[in-house]
Amino acid sequence: MVELTTPVQYVKGVGPKLAEILATKQIATVGDLLHYLPFRYEDRLNPRGIAELRAGEMATVIGEVRNSGLFRTRRMPIFQLTVGQGRSRLKCLWFNATYLQDKFKPGQLIALYGKVEQDSRSGELQIMQPQFEMLGDSGADGADDKAAASLEVGRIVPIYESAEQGRVTARWFRRIIRTALDDLTPELAETIPAAVRERLALVSPREALWKVHWPEAGESFEDLQSSRTPAHIRLIFEELFFIELGLELKRRQQKAQTGIAFRLDDRVRQAIKKILPFHPTAAQKRVLKEIADDMQKPHPMRRLLQGDVGSGKTIIGFQAAIIAIENGYQVALMAPTEILAQQHYFSARRILENAGYRIVLLTGSLEADRKREIRRHIAQGNAQLVIGTHALLEEKVEFAKPGLVIVDEQHRFGVLQRLKLMKKSGDAGGNKGAALTESEAEAAKTSLAEPDVLVMTATPIPRTLALTLHGDLDLSVLDELPPGRTPIVTRRITDDRSPEVWDFVRKQVAKGHQVYVVYPVIAENEETELKAAIKMYRELSGKIFADLKVGLLHGRLDSELKDQVMRMFQKGELQILVATTVIEVGVDVPNATVMVIEHAERFGLAQLHQLRGRIGRGAAKSYCILMTGGKVTEEGERRLDAMVRTNDGFQIAELDLELRGPGEFFGTRQAGMPSFRVASLIRDRQLLELAKREAAAVMAGPNAEVTQVEISRALVALRTRWQHTYGLVEVG
Ligand code: ADP
Ligand code: MG
Fold this sequence. Notes:
By secondary structure, this protein is an alpha/beta fold.
């Protein structure tokens, strides 16, 4: 008898050696093994007769090997196999498949799966490069012939991805998983509350595990292939349910903490209004209200503000900052890069300093003395708004009275979880045991209060995903651009036509506009690419635009120089800025109307969209020119095509998610995003939303629907499930 938690090596036929190989597939326990689902199924209950095959269809054929052989064409060796059913015959071909030589013996039974095609010359049907499996042959692994055969024909058969470059076969998985199922303890605890199970008509865990591997004859083939059988749905829902339950729990824990109830009276309202350099859009007003409502509550705000590039997030951040400052608290504004921190500092000074607020900039490149002095200002409470980079504020900056943390342009997930919010000066002292006076008690409470957190992101996470994944954040969306923007025109062009591009750039400059020219510098070949960017800068500044003012900006410049270049560009003293992706996020120069991106095929979609977001920020018409050099992959084509087709960040995000898959889209596991065993973020979005809703309903209990016992059971399951795997939730 095995349990779901039994190490996989104790499954009959596995052992320590194979267990090691399974470990590379994240299979450590019987439970992991049973969640290693078939990636497709073959209908070997009703295999096709060769005579009835049609060109173009995917088919499973079971037949007898008649003959096989390797023949060489001028280009490559081709392996040919003929199988038969009675008098019918079918030809199969594999290219370059010398390894298949001597593999087949006449008379053997074989199952083939692949696309049926018509040979252009003979008109006969054939299958190119089919997947195949020998049947009824125990092979080297010594299985009982009959038992093996009964798993492989006359039924719907699960096909698994093989491991170790095919040395651990689909067939082996089939047998081992079957053994594990046969030996599995009959008592599998049900951890999803009954009301949820009934509402969604979920089958039992045991039934789900059996049927997902061994579907019954009547099961819909379409549902199987699209992972929509009741068995699939049970397993997928369960996985998502426990993620959402963890997030819901976390959100509740956060909400239960003591926060700061900021006051929003007329004086504060006036202060917020006074700084506005323009009329806010309706979306900006709505979002500010959502934030202000949160800030007034006695619990910490944890809010994600999502708005496409250029939607005007900065001013909202400043307004929230004023609420905190007017209440006597300090605010930290963190940006991902120094350039962006600098820029925020300049606009903060422009917008806020006239109103009398005290603002400091704290970046890594400041001199040690200066840094120390600024830290002292912060610790003493003189500085009201502290602007810096993420890294810096994650360190040990002490605030006298922290009230609000704003994290700008946050791409990565899970940072909030890891972010140790600012330390408060005097925290360490604590209560020495003496009775507290009332005002001391009040003060102690204040210092325990968690600051509010506002995360601003331009990464347009598809809304449904944002809502469901960030169970621990509330979401505000800025879905309107400030007025007067004309849509950016995006064009693709191959780089042999660069003279035309430079001509166009020259004309725009003549109209008084500014231009970015961006080169890729991607970590892998940073050195050579950086050289290319610098070389192009020489070419552009020395020859092509010798009469214009051209600047260069890249990550390796020392920060004073970076700063100087950026400031010159902002003031219009440079007409053309040659840059790497350091300008990707946040940079705001409304007079820049052209963005030329060289080797655009090398950039990711989200990155291209961010870069393009640097233009189209003023009233003048803006142009994004995507230059390609060399061969563009099919995926590259789709990225460029999407850029030309749409300016809508949400549409772009959807496609990006599809192209890259959730893992990369969200920036790997370490960023706090779980990877899934059976669920797929793209395929299973609806189930994800359902899971979120159900998890919230369960945590709202106990009530008529869910008992305390059920909730406890679910929470215990949650702990064993996720704590070790993801460190995602801490369950008390
Ligand atoms: P992002 O959301 O990308 O951070 P910013 O906050 O940098 O966008 O705003 C983009 C530009 O739009 C800035 O130049 C800003 O001053 C301007 N802007 C923001 N809101 C408005 C508005 N309501 N009316 C006019 N201009 C605005
Ligand atoms: Mg911004």
